[in-house]
Amino acid sequence: MQRLPSAERRKQLVEAAIRVMTRDGVAKATTRSICAEAGVSLSVFHYCFASKQELIEDVMETITAHSVTPVAARIQPTADVRESVRAALGTYWDHVLAHPEEHMLTYELTQYALRRPGFEYLARRQYEQYAAANRALVEHLCRDLGLVLLVPAETLVRYLASMIDGLTLNHLVLGDAPGAAAVLDTLADQVVQMMRRGEPGEENAAPGDG
Fold first, then answer.
1. In DSSP terms, which residues pair with 197 in a beta bridge?
2. Which long-range contacts (CB under 8 A, 24 or more apart) does 163-167 make?
């Protein structure tokens, strides 16, 4: 077995865990099955992770980053606010369409964490990552295009997260990609209505942001 740095082994085990959980479900993903998927011994797992909870923490952060990171990379506001918002939403949605099984797993992981005492913080951290991605989009738009929000920034961040989360689950159950795209179009229109161009010297802060 090739010797790798601990950080590389951890990454290898996390990606193997994602594959196993996607295929078999979280409950059936044992440390033994994850090690078999990664092609390593159990001793390697215990060297890299203090517990299965620690592994699941890394799994949740990694799988969330799979969909969040591409959006952050595509936040390049253009002069057209609506186009900028729709492009960012489209980048996330492309990941949903390409990897529906991973997104299905994110919901399973959320429920898994919420139902186990001591694991609840993992679900909270997962949704904080979603909020951070939406917050970055809002901040980029305001800063680069000189926009002022007509609602509190955190209200818009939560609104975006709630809409996208609900639409993703709806799509996983019902399918209908064209229908989902139409909802994203509407969402982009609504987000634009919550913003306006700022006056020279006006701060890009939303009402109630203190």
1. 147
2. 163/187, 164/89, 164/92, 164/130, 164/134, 165/130
Cβ 25 vs Cβ 108: under 8 Å: yes
Whether 155 shows a pLDDT value over 90: the answer reads yes
d(CA 175, CA 179): 9
pLDDT of residue 59: 93
Alpha-carbon separation of residue 45 from 6, 9, 35, 41 (angstroms) = 10, 8, 7, 7
DSSP 8-state class, residue 41: -
Q: What does the pLDDT read at residue 7? A: 85
Spatial CA neighbour of 144 closest among 89, 197, 97: 197
Please tell me the distance from the alpha carbon of residue 11 to that of residue 14, in angstroms, as a whole number: 5
- Dmax over Cα atoms in the chain, in whole Å? 63
DSSP 103: H
d(CA 109, CA 133): 19
**Tokens found for residue 3:** 């010797």
Question: The whole model's pTM is what?
Answer: 0.81
Residue 152 is encoded by which pair of tokens?
């509190």
Per-residue confidence (pLDDT) for residue 66, from 0 to 100: 80
